[in-house]
């Protein structure tokens, strides 16, 4: 059976979805971007079968439409789609990082014969644009769908089936609950990361020792401070009520820490780290997939030519099978970080031991 997919906004997420669907049996992927410059980029990357700057042309024959624009534009795009002649039974979904407002908007539009199902792939990166798109982006990640209670279950199932090509785990959630949970595990951390980096930047203005010594833990917890400014101002403004409540809790927690230090309360510090360590160890660090398992290791490597080949050869010589190798950080002044993925736990474990024994800084 043939299926036409329209991707509106072919950036990091839209481009990655397009790559997951393109070339699959019976599927044709059409890309749409309102501007020529971004069209040239995604056409050059070859992520779609066809590209257009006409919204009507992109969606007129579509069976499934993915709206992949920044959150602040989602309502406008839905309104534009409402005015177009779409295929009856067409499924419209989005990938925005917030779900309550877009779901409300779709309901307001009272769309006869069209099924809107909100979506949010819980995978991505601090990078943006189609240049960073990858077929592997969603593999083993969670992909949240937020249908309303009266959704057409057959349309929902069709979308779930299509999303199997992403190799993500589908989770069904209420849109308001989604925004509360994601506010805490994604939106608040992005603010904290940005605030932390900017605090250190201020100190660094008078003493550049800060930037030289910032490594290890600081780099780990601030990677997302480099996220796209437009994408993130849209997300935070959209979910501001939830985020403001979370920031009030955060403020409370900062005050608690101040009090703990003022009172020199070592017991409370130890309790805090014990509690956070215990909870963190329950988080799914190595996510297991339905199709196969993935085990990740991260290693710091010097920025020298041939280092990737050297690591791959080293593991190969010990019969340790890599399923993927990705550079996730590469800068001239600091060591790069490689992500090594394995399908087998034993390969993951032995590689961890081998690389640690060889003096590499390995973390999971
Ligand atoms: N960056 C991430 O890691 C994740 C982002 N998201 C969500 O995915 C969406 C897209 O984010 P990214 O792919 O990271 O951003 P991106 O900046 O890489 O891509 C956004 C794309 O939207 C296009 N666009 C702009 N105006 C448009 C319009 N009126 N109609 C259609 N397309 C338009 C842009 O040309 C660009 O190609 C956002 O809603 C974001 O909240 C969801 C999960 C992860
Ligand atoms: O880079 C990371 O770790 C992210 O947190 C990426 C991300 C950004 C936005 C989302 O809505 C979901 C995931």
TrEMBL record:
Its EC number is 1.3.1.12. Pfam families: ACT, PDH_C, PDH_N. This is Prephenate dehydrogenase. Keywords: Amino-acid biosynthesis, Aromatic amino acid biosynthesis, NAD, Oxidoreductase, Tyrosine biosynthesis. InterPro entries: 6-PGluconate_DH-like_C_sf, ACT-like_dom_sf, ACT_dom, NAD(P)-bd_dom_sf, PDH_C, PDH_N, Preph/Arog_dehydrog, Prephen_DH. SUPFAM superfamilies: 6-phosphogluconate dehydrogenase C-terminal domain-like (SSF48179), ACT-like (SSF55021), NAD(P)-binding Rossmann-fold domains (SSF51735). Pathway: Amino-acid biosynthesis; L-tyrosine biosynthesis; (4-hydroxyphenyl)pyruvate from prephenate (NAD(+) route): step 1/1. It is an enzyme of class 1 (oxidoreductase). Belongs to the prephenate/arogenate dehydrogenase family. The keyword Flavoprotein does not apply. It catalyses: prephenate + NAD(+) = 3-(4-hydroxyphenyl)pyruvate + CO2 + NADH. Residues 3-291 form the Prephenate/arogenate dehydrogenase domain. It comes from Paenibacillus aquistagni. GO terms for biological process: tyrosine biosynthetic process. Residues 296-364 form the ACT domain. It comes from the Bacteria. GO terms for molecular function: NAD+ binding; prephenate dehydrogenase (NAD+) activity; prephenate dehydrogenase (NADP+) activity.
């Amino acid at each position: 059976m043939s299926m036409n997919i329209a991707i509106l906004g072919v950036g990091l997420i839209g481009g990655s979805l397009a790559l997951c669907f393109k070339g699959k049996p019976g599927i044709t992927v059409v890309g749409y971007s309102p501007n020529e410059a971004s069209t040239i980029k995604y056409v050059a990357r070859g992520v779609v079968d066809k590209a257009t700057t006409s919204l009507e042309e992109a969606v007129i024959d579509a069976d499934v439409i993915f709206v992949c624009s920044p959150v602040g534009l989602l309502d406008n795009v839905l309104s534009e789609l409402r005015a177009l002649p779409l295929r009856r039974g067409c499924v419209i979904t989005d990938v925005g990082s917030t779900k309550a407002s877009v779901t409300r908007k779709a309901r307001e539009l009272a769309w006869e014969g069209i099924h809107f199902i909100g979506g949010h792939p819980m995978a991505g990166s601090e990078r943006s644009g189609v240049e960073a798109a990858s077929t592997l982006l969603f593999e083993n990640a969670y992909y949240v769908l937020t249908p309303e209670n009266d959704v057409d279950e057959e349309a929902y199932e069709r979308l779930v089936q299509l999303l199997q090509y992403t190799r993500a785990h589908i989770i069904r959630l209420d849109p308001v609950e989604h925004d509360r949970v994601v506010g805490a595990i994604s939106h608040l951390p992005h603010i904290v990361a940005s605030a932390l980096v900017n605090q250190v930047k201020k100190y660094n203005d008078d003493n550049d020792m800060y930037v030289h010594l910032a490594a290890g833990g600081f780099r780990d917890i601030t990677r997302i401070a480099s996220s796209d400014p437009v994408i993130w101002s849209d997300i935070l403004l959209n979910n501001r009520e939830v985020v403001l409540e979370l920031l009030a809790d955060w403020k409370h927690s900062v005050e608690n820490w101040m009090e703990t230090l003022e009172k020199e309360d070592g017991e409370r510090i130890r309790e805090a780290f014990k509690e956070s360590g215990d909870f963190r160890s329950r988080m799914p660090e190595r996510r297991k997939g339905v199709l196969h398992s993935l085990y990740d290791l991260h290693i710091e490597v010097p920025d020298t030519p041939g280092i990737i080949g050297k690591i791959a050869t080293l593991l190969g010589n010990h019969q340790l099978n890599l399923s993927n190798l990705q550079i996730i950080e590469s800068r001239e002044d600091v060591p790069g970080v490689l992500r090594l993925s394995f399908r087998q736990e034993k390969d993951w474990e032995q590689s961890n031991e081998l690389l640690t024994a060889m003096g590499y800084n390995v973390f999971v």
